[in-house]
Amino acid sequence: MIHSEHTIEYLSSRLLRGETTAGAVVAAALDAAEKLNDTLNAFLQIDRAGATARADEIAAETGNGASRGSLAGIPIVLKDNICVRGLQASCGSRILGNYHPPYDATVTERLRAAGAVIIGKTNCDEFAMGSSNENSAFGPVRNPWDTARVPGGSSGGSAAAVAARIVPVALGSETGGSVRQPAALCGIVGVKPTYGRVSRYGLVAFGSSLDQVSVFGLTVRDAAIVLGTIAGRDARDATTADVPVPNYIAELPANDLKGARVGVPRALFGEGLDEEVRASVEAAVEAYRTLGAEIIDVELPHAKYSIAVYYIIATAEASSNLARFDGARYGFRTEEARTLSEMYRRTRDEGFGAEVKRRIMLGTYVLSSGYYDAYYRKAQQVRTLIRNDFLKAFERCDAILTPTTPTPAFLLGEKTDDPLAMYLSDIYTCTANLAGIPGIALPCGLTTSGLPIGFQLLGSHWSEATLFRLAHAYEAEHPLTARPHVIAR
Amino acid sequence: MPITESDIEKIAKLAHLEITDEERRALTPQIASIVAYVEQLNELDTSQVEPAIGGLTPEGERTESPRDDVILPSLGQQLALEEAPDPSHGHFRVPKVL
To answer: What is the spatial distance between Cα A314 and Cα A211, in angstroms, rounded to a whole number?
Structure first.
């Protein structure tokens, strides 16, 4: 068993046997969070008082013979764009800063009901816009494997917290790869569900037709437990679908993949792909062959247009969603403004960082009069073509395997002056968000300099159980046994 | 058509963003290069393609969203104003409109 002492499975069985207590498990996570935060900057808030009180409650409830939730006493962290009553939700932005939402997100309610203990809120790129976590107003997160490097983004704090073994699992959010990309750069598992699988109620909106709450775990099994807990129709989010949530864990065992078909789009293994990443992902393809899967060549002819489509649709939706941040009702307001319109402009100028402004501007431009058809409508048409490519490919295979990122973790500052180069880090991931399909990223080795490499499996709508089964079979044979050694400052 | 500094000025106004001269100078080539990049979509003939509307799957499209018309409690005035930068007499106070 890999990383055994850090998994939900291990912690739950020790709790059940009375070998430890929820209080002790949660205290250990809080200690690690506090000890490592000067080095990693993964947390924007650590809630020692609230988490300790909640752990005691859980201990009392389970001690009284109440039925145990699937996550009873398990510490978890949430990206700071997911609402938790009593804790902040800054979204990594100065414009929200110390904002405390007056309600829980649906995913928060479901985690609490299952007995999970939220120990803190994690750092992220401002409003989830970024691929390196350098766009946070509260400083970048550092990669636990090499603190001179980025953890990926935008959910970098959650990824670093899991990779550094502070917590076994965490929530992030995806719009174009913001969980799978940092999972790859930090050597852990990241799951982006089908659009409509998980409620977005209480997730601060960025690109509403792309956003999904997503899950990090050290193992496939742990990620599956958490997705099973938060998934399912929610009347408060009309875009959640009425589709049954399978028991992902019950469907896991089956290491023999005979009959499974894995599609490989060779055209995407070309230009821009790091040689070590290519070799490692090719080895993963061979591993699937060895496990009994049939490897099939597939084509995704429009995938190369995905970044262009993504940056039109995501910025258009963002420019509209972020119009609500105006200094009137909550969050930051500029000190001096003589008129309402001046208050809006100055609040937004002082409150938003450079990347958020750039995307609001780009989104406003592509939606503006005279340009709408040329950019926005065109992008929505190509989105249809990208989705159709996947539907066609899935007639011939159960999942598609690609690298998760073109390169391993890059250096802090390496891409900050070139927004377009940064956007290209999402080249493999953003297709899934555009097509609304699920994806799972998992580690498949280390570079010669010791940085994690990852691959992803993409599946048809609602096929998370298949992805978990395929990922679990690989992980059982090829676990990443190395772990980062973070030295507390 | 290349994007100019005056286009950037106009977009900033539409987006209610007050940008400095320095920001305008930096943003102009950045937005221009991103727009030039996305123009690769023009290689594709999409005259016969339906635009995707939103991100819903077919199952999501079929899910009935309307709920019964029942009154549910709302936040209430006190809680709704708790995070307001300038609350006054149960309202959000802002500078004069005109």
So the answer is: 9
